[in-house]
Batch of 2 targets.
Target 1
Amino acid sequence: MSSVSPVRPATRADVGAAVRTLGRAFADYPWTRHTIAADGHQRRLEAFQELFVARIGLEHGRGWVTDDCAAVSVWTTPDSTEVGSVFAELAPRFAELAGDRAPFAEEAERVVSPYRPQEPVWFLGTVGVDPERQGNGLGSAVIRPGLAEADRVGAAAFLETSLEGNVRFYQRLGFVVTADVRLPSGGPRTWFMTRPPH
């Protein structure tokens, strides 16, 4: 019997529950451990995810959740033309949340920037499943609507991951590795993956 909850578009009412799920999912994620201060890390991480979900995803992108918000995906799309200015507006807050890791966060962004697509894509900005619910197909369930939308408009999908175990998961969804880079200053290895439109 499948334990996959129904998936629906995320709404403003989902922000709190979605952020709690992402906070649990990213608690020990190598990228965020490298780029967000250890002091008050969980609080900082959840505030970071809240900005991304509420200000980027819901206002300028797309997102999907399971009915119980145990799984969340947030995308920017080729129509997300204002995202650059929103990131610029939020940059001081992101730096504040990074705390003493802000120089490492800035360095990481400089290193990965050349590997990101220049053409418009569906960019999977964040996705997470509550750790107690992982392994039940929820991650795929909240990612597939974005892939279907990308296919509908003939756009590629793109993501980055800093967990090697995620690479095979994304390969099963049609993504291929286009680059992998070891971040400097003791940062994690990061894979860049693209999925052509199907």
Target 2
Amino acid sequence: MSLLILGLLIFLGAHSLRVFADGWRTRMIARFGANAWKGLFALVSIVGFVLIAWGFGLARQQPVLLYAPPAVLKHLNALFTLVAFVLVAAAYVPRNHAKAAIGHPMLAGVKLWAFGHLLATGMLHDVVLFGAFLLWAIADFVVSRRRDRRAGTTYPAGTLSGDGATLAIGVALWAVFAFLLHVRWIGVNPFA
């Protein structure tokens, strides 16, 4: 469990700099340059992600059951995850209504993904992993929305073609992950 927690601290810590140390982050970018900062950020993120994956795998070998969710919540999680994939796609597809409405659809997607997994799983390692991502996404979303309001940030209006592309990409990525990659990478069939 310690590797999982260390990985979460590194990964989510790096992704929380704009939340808790935006001024310091801005000074470091000015000092080292945007490309060097992005390289360092990517390296730290990869290290954190590897530790999360490794630590989660180790923690699964010594499971501690906290609660036993009913089967219906596992099916509900599949729906939450589908919507989460569409929201993440909305962060990258230009001119869609989700981005126009909420500004930070990736964070909304992470919140939904983490919440759904907390409902569907009841092991301690699951609660640590998904709980940490849920708390991080909530905090980052709130801070990002406040920053947008202070700066007067507006996002381009959504279009039907942007919505269609967002939906198609999100559903396609979800289907590939849910039906093929989740079992291979995570070792869990989300529909079993």
